[in-house]
Amino acid sequence: MRSRPLTCIFHGPSVFDEGDAARINRILAPDHLIVAGVMGRTAAAESGLAITPADLPPSFVINKMTGDSILVNRGKTPESGRWFGEIVAGRITGGRGLVHIECSDQTCYLWNEGDRELAEYVAERIGCPVVEVSSSCRNTPEIRTIHGCLPGEPVCVEGITIGYATAGEVILSRDNGTLNPISGIRVKPHGMEKLIAIGCPPLDRAWCKSGQIRSSLPETPARRAPVCGKIAIIDHAALDIYRIITPNLAGIITIGDDTTAVCGHIGAVQGVPVFGITDGDADGIVPETYAPGSVVTHVICGTDDDLGREIAASIPQDAEFCWDRLVRDILRTYSGTIRIVRDLR
Questions:
Q1: Exposure letters 21-54 (e unless 16+ CB within 10 A, then b)
Q2: Is 201 found in the same domain as 124?
Q3: pLDDT > 70: what percent of the chain?
Q4: Rounded to an integer, what distance in angstroms lies between the CA atom of residue 184 and that of residue 168?
């Protein structure tokens, strides 16, 4: 019987959608539950668990903590799950190592000579083997390998689809802040342009992923946002959504297909409608669903970037609007420029 407090750090939506988080919480009865990652936070909100969101990568969370902690992850494949654990372990400071439960193949990884007693305690109760491993992750600020890719699936950096995998590994480099594909990827030029516009962070800190960022649909959405209130604009930066969701947020104007899909998905969980401006280059990184009051439009000519920014510029910052009236006004003003492809009013 352990006497020290235990914190479980859950990463990603799959540990909630597949029931891993609930099972591990029931078996281990940890003192604290933390979720890392944007879509993980979304799935956690539906789980019913008393969980604290952290808008930080798992390694940042662990480095700020004292006491015992374990990382719980479910990779798309066992290989990608193991590689994720290796990346996290390689970023942990102070020589503490890492106890990592990989739910995709029910393995307890003990990284970098971490706490063996904790690993054995956890593994015995969950019913999985302990595998000792060392992190040799060679990602640097200027080069990154994304492992466990499936050919044809989208490759995302900072939530933006930059291309499609052509091999099991995608190698990217960064030169003076500009991302360059090296191998294993068919580039999506428009996605690369978007990433250049917002800036590519150092690759050892960037959020890089292949495939869907969540595969499950939220429960039946309900509109909980106020009828009138603040309006937020998200332009190809869906990962920022939780920073702008506040009690007085009436709705979100989203620019870009994948941005609209991700914000709509999260908005459906939070009860916040979106007005999406798209141009038809969605990559299916998340199942589309929206809160009541949402409208998704398609640009008839031109790009979502240009028209979206024009519409965004017409909405004064910090002003309050009644959402349904604002949506009607935008549709009337741009009736010859956009068409409705989804209407949940």
A1: beebbeebebeebbbbbbbbbbbbbebeeebebb
A2: no
A3: 99
A4: 7
Note whether residue 223 is domain-resident.
Answer: no
Last residue of a domain, one of 157, 176, 210: 210
What are the distances in angstroms from CA 76 to CA 148, 202, 215?
8, 24, 10
Structural domain range at position 65: 6-133
Q: Are strands 160-165 and 185-187 parallel, antiparallel or unpaired?
A: antiparallel
Residues 17 and 91 in one domain: yes
Q: Are 213 and 39 in contact (CB under 8 A)?
A: yes
Question: What's the alpha-carbon Rg for the chain, to the nearest Å?
Answer: 21
If you write DSSP's letter for every residue of 291-307 in order, what string do you get?
Answer: -TT-EEEEESSS-HHHH
Asked if 122 and 90 sit in the same domain, the reply is yes
Separation between Cα atoms, residue 20 and residue 105, nearest integer Å: 12
Tens-digit pLDDT profile for residues 127-146: 999 999 999 877 788 999 99
State whether residue 278 is helix, strand or coil. Answer: strand
Q: Is residue 218 part of a domain?
A: no
State pLDDT tens for residues 153-194.
Answer: 999 998 889 999 999 999 999 998 889 999 999 999 988 988
